[in-house]
# Entry
Amino acid sequence: MSTSGKPRTRRSPVLLGCLVVAGVFLVSGLFGTVIGLVKAFGAVGSESIDPSQKARILAEGISEAMNCPAFGLIVGFGVGVPILVGWLVTWRREKPGEDQDGEGGSGKGEPPEA
# Structure
């Protein structure tokens, strides 16, 4: 226990790395959505684009705006969830008397007893 009475927890670098990877893919999907929408609305509002090409460019922009978040969700969860589950299974299999660094304690992030 810490001095404030709350149990101290340790954050695993694997867990944090997993969350960062999943977050990067999710944010990249949102970024792709914005780029696709800018491309789609740019085609509709532009005077310099041939009217016969506007529909094609609009469809490409909408397609990009819809595919990017799907890719971000699939890859973000496809990478993040299996790593998270693997980490949880590994964490549960640790010996109850050892922390991750092998110094003893309850295995729940508490400091070893002196």
About this structure: The radius of gyration is 24 Å. The mean pLDDT is 75.
